[in-house]
Amino acid sequence: MPETWANYSVDLHLDLAAPPPGSGAQRPKARLEAALRTAIRSGRLPPETRLPSSRVLAADLGLARNTVADAFGQLVAEGWLEARTGSGTWVAEQAATTAAGAGQQPDRTARGPRYDLRAGVPAMSAFPRRSWLAASRTALEAASDEDLGYPDPRGLPALRAAVAGYLARARGVIADQDNVLICPGFSGGLALVSRVLMARTPDAAVAVEASGHALHRKIIAAQGATVVPVPLDHLGAYPAAVTPAPVDPGRTAGRAARRPVSAVLLTPAHQFPLGMTLAPARRTAFTRWAGQAGGLLIEDDYDGEYRFDRQPVGALQALAPEHVIYAGTASKSLAPGLRLGWLVAPASIAAELAAAQELSGSSPGVLEQLTLARLIETGGYDRQVRQSRLAYRRRRDWLITALRRQAPQVRLTGIAAGLHAVAELPAGLSEAGMVNRAARHGVAVRGLGDYTMAGYERPPALVIGFGRPADHAFTAAVARLCAALSEPAD
Questions:
Q1: Does 361 score more than 80 pLDDT?
Q2: Which of 97-111, 239-253, 367-381 has the highest mean pLDDT?
Q3: Concatenated DSSP letters for 149-214?
Q4: d(CA 241, CA 286)
Q5: CA 159 to CA 198: how far, in whole Å?
Q6: Mind listing the pLDDT tens digit for each residue in 133-166?
Q7: DSSP structure class, residue 417
Q8: What are the angstrom distances between the C-alpha of 154 and each of 164, 193, 289, 348?
């Protein structure tokens, strides 16, 4: 078949009906040059895009072939295009830089600080690419035709069984594959639970720890539920906050307007972000409330595998499996981008969660589920957790040592487990000021206030995540943060 625009592989839209604004170009060659420059400058023609041949483009635009060839030649001379012998004409690699230089210089500060010490993300460089690839290949070869069809909304049986076995031995969770639901990360699981709670009780209220992920509060509220704060102290969340109190009939605007709590979202193993463990007596009190009130506890076990200076704390779910929805993910152990999480739900709600997930159409991909199942079954997941635990402990120890040496006025808390620490600031230093100062040193970090609900403010502190940077960047990131903390007050 002869080469024509209709069968050429690149669809290139160039409008030469009138000169581009401000170009002053009238001749066809000049208008073509200006149109190509505009397309490259705007990003419609990114670097390494192969252009049609001069003959094909000329036929499409109704121009003489020499006109197109001359325009190409001019843009090659200017650096916008690159002519490759035997391979045609391409948008040059340096065209993007040239385009930026043609106007104002790009704002390099817009890219943000060089080092990122915000909490909530593990080291992406630690993702076990080889193990994942090997598990994926093996799992795909062994997969049946049925495995690749529309999956069970609860998740593939192989992964549900693998997760149930892993949680039973590693976290003490009481589970079998029938009450495990694979969901798209914790956020996806929380949205499902909130949706089901609202379907059950349209005026549902969900209690959350007063310091925690703002996104989680937004997810709950987006489903229509009322968000109720639960205060925290050094022993964790207050159970009394979810217990209805007698109401003074003369004060109906306050407590009387509050809806009864249907569920409580907790991070009992390692409170986020403060870092304490929920005290045993309070664990018992929360499970007693759930039993007496018919409520649910949502246990976010986001980093339960990572403990350093203490014995592992078992899952709250084991105390009252009929009243606790246990939630975990592979986000901290592998990578958040996999969107692989799981709920272990009581029989009283498991079917409703599965139905809600089926309607949402948000089940994780089959190939990712098959791969994770294989990784757990072969012990690769356990190896990854053990290796990561050692690596993050070394990072935590480095952070402690560096701050003690260079910023002894800062007190670290919540460091016995997890991937972050809380740095309590001395008097005279504000969170906002320290966040800005760290940014000037090239470090992104967040203040504790970013996680705390209004009316429950705590003394100024930074929440420092030591999981996110790559190994080669971590010590430099900590050094810059220490320099910011040890600087004289502004």
A1: yes
A2: 367-381
A3: SSPPTT--HHHHHHHHHHHHHHT-----GGGEEEESHHHHHHHHHHHHHHHH-TT-EEEEESBS-H
A4: 10
A5: 29
A6: 999 999 999 999 998 998 899 999 999 999 999 9
A7: B
A8: 13, 14, 28, 15
Pairing of strands 236-237, 420-424: unpaired
The dihedral built from the CA positions of residue 29, 32, 36 and 38, taken in this order, carries a sign that is positive
Beta bridge partners of 443: 115
Q: Give the Cα separation of 309 and 287 in Å (integer).
A: 27
- 487's CB contacts (< 8 A; 6+ apart) are 437
Residues composing the chain: 490
Backbone angles phi, psi at 281, to 5 degrees: -65, -35
Whole-angstrom CA distances from 159 to 163, 182, 374, 376 are 6, 8, 8, 9
Helix, coil or strand: residue 485? helix
Residue bearing tokens 């230093």: 429
Take residue 296 and report the two structure tokens written for it: 């649910």
Phi, psi of 326 (to 5 degrees): -85, 135
